[in-house]
From TrEMBL:
<dbReference type="InterPro" id="IPR000340">
    <property type="entry name" value="Dual-sp_phosphatase_cat-dom"/>
</dbReference>
<dbReference type="InterPro" id="IPR016130">
    <property type="entry name" value="Tyr_Pase_AS"/>
</dbReference>
<protein>
    <recommendedName>
        <fullName>Tyrosine specific protein phosphatases domain-containing protein</fullName>
    </recommendedName>
</protein>
<dbReference type="GO" id="GO:0004651">
    <property type="term" value="F:polynucleotide 5'-phosphatase activity"/>
</dbReference>
<dbReference type="InterPro" id="IPR029021">
    <property type="entry name" value="Prot-tyrosine_phosphatase-like"/>
</dbReference>
<dbReference type="InterPro" id="IPR051029">
    <property type="entry name" value="mRNA_Capping_Enz/RNA_Phosphat"/>
</dbReference>
<dbReference type="Pfam" id="PF00782">
    <property type="entry name" value="DSPc"/>
</dbReference>
<dbReference type="InterPro" id="IPR000387">
    <property type="entry name" value="Tyr_Pase_dom"/>
</dbReference>
<feature type="domain" description="Tyrosine specific protein phosphatases">
    <location>
        <begin position="87"/>
        <end position="137"/>
    </location>
</feature>
Amino acid sequence: MKCYSRTEHNIHYSIYSQSFECRLDPNERFSPLDLIERIRDQKEELGMIIDLTYTTRYYGAEELPDTLCYCKILTVGHEVPDHETIFKFKSAVKKFLKENQDNDKLIGVHCTHGLNRTGYLVCRYLIDEGMTPNAAIALTGHLPTFSCKHERSSQGGITVQVK
């Protein structure tokens, strides 16, 4: 399994649906389409997004290109994901990897803040596939997360700072 790592410093992102973008300064916007573009700039291709947010208000599959797989797994925050959620996540990843054995397409995984749900499920997958817990934590610790600072916006999104 290939893990993609990218480091950016002091960049503010917001996760918003297109209906909110007109209210925001361009520097405050960060959408799945921005992610696709940034990955493309790195000569990589995003093949799937796994959305672990426990809401549908940020964006929807209809805003994504038809060529991108989208998997919505409603995952409660501030709790360890339950067995059903873990099964759905692992099944989605395994299915995608099986169907994409002949390419290097990436899987993007996100939750609302990039802290608990994303990290837990990625580590859990790696551990269940045979990686040691310490190795899984070390590997995912080098991946970009949006965990340093977050603020709720009155306009319905989350502003996060990457360090």
